[in-house]
Write a structure and sequence with these properties.
The chain has 440 residues and is α+β, with helices and mostly antiparallel strands. Helices cover 31% and strands 24% of the residues. The structure holds uridine-diphosphate-N-acetylglucosamine.
Length: 440
Amino acid sequence: MKDSVVPTEQYVIRGGVPLQGEVEIGGAKNAALAILAAAIMTDETVTIENMPDVRDTNVLLEAMGGIGVRIERLDRHTVRINGAMVQNVNIEYELIKKIRASYYLIGALLGKYKEAEVPLPGGCNIGSRPIDQHLKGFRAIGAEVKISHGSIIAHAKRLIGAHIYMDVVTVGATINIMMASCMAEGKTIIENAAKEPHVVDVANFLNSMGANIKGAGTDIIRIKGVSRLHSATYSIIPDQIEAGTFMFAAAASRGNLLVKNVIPKHLESITAKLIEIGCDVEEFDDSVRVSRTGELKSTQIKTLPYPGFPTDMQPQAGVVLALSEGVSTITESIFENRFRYVDEIIRMGANIRVKGNTAIFTGVSSLTGARLTSPDLRAGAALVLAALSADGVSVIDDIYLIERGYEDFEVKLKKVGARIERVSSEKEIRKFILQTEAVS
Ligand code: UD1
């Protein structure tokens, strides 16, 4: 999205309806971003299925189109990519600065062409987001890397496999080094690798194109360089965070939701916390049912790399803990600036104190609707959950941030009973208030 056209839509929500029914989860945004970038690493055509149609993936596709990648949308969730005609390895800044995952183009371009020039990433304002581990990995396999005029510039005569120990567990650097090294000469070993489901998905995708990557999903990933990658058809895994958001939405709204098209194993830390606070969670082969009948209990949460509780679920969990009896705590150990939703829900009547990287929640029995501003992608989704649970009407501004990562969020919520509308004027807000007043 270009700065000059920041959209001004809002969600207007009348809370108090328990969400009931079934919701279908889409493909994982964070896997899709890496997989789309990796798809240019072969000159043959790659077909990606189950791609989420969200702002971040669309911006990345547009940027890829800008360097000559051929992109064909077969349908809303299927895209055909051909990277044979990449004309330059220099990505335009305006197109890419809004999304964090622009850095995956460095790994992909460096791995394929041995050179890349990509602007330093933007993305959610959730804290300082260093990229030292990415750079350390690229350098270890023989690239010269410098940061100049706001871009990362990398090039190498030869890429040669190396043994890399990651000083912190990082999803982005693990994936980027996997991409950059899959056509390097010899063997690369990544120790202390991230184990998130989307790390495994990207490894599976690269392997389906002919890469030789073993151990993804464990601490140690071993990559044997191959000389070329080839065409593939690949379906992206379901989005763990979209699923978790709907699971917590059921809890916040006293609802009963069947969350379909998920991998329940990926949701274990989320399921465990919901059960701890008193929800019922039933697991099936590819769906989970979450229901809440009574009052919720307090708990403690600490965000950790997978299989720990995901930082991307922390704000949604925070809203539910604000409504749970007793005193709960959340310790945020991944990003320092992820409590920006707290001030917003305090305005709805929540009782929360933040001390350093810990938030202390003293549960209240209900929240009240208010005018809210979405601070970032996941915090914005959390505000939607708060509004769904609240008495009265809330209006949430800056929903373009939420739409970075949730496809048809309000459509899916409406299907399970939520009174929510996506609007773009005060007139439409007033109309919604009148209409929903009549039926409540
Ligand atoms: C990805 C996800 C993001 C999620 C995060 C953690 C995408 C596009 N984004 O972000 O939604 O919240 O994983 O699950 O997939 N770090 C360093 N040096 C580095 C890289 C990271 O110190 O070079 C630190 C970060 O500051 C952070 C931690 O490592 O404290 C984890 O970050 P990382 O896993 O890399 O997050 P992202 O890949 O940026």
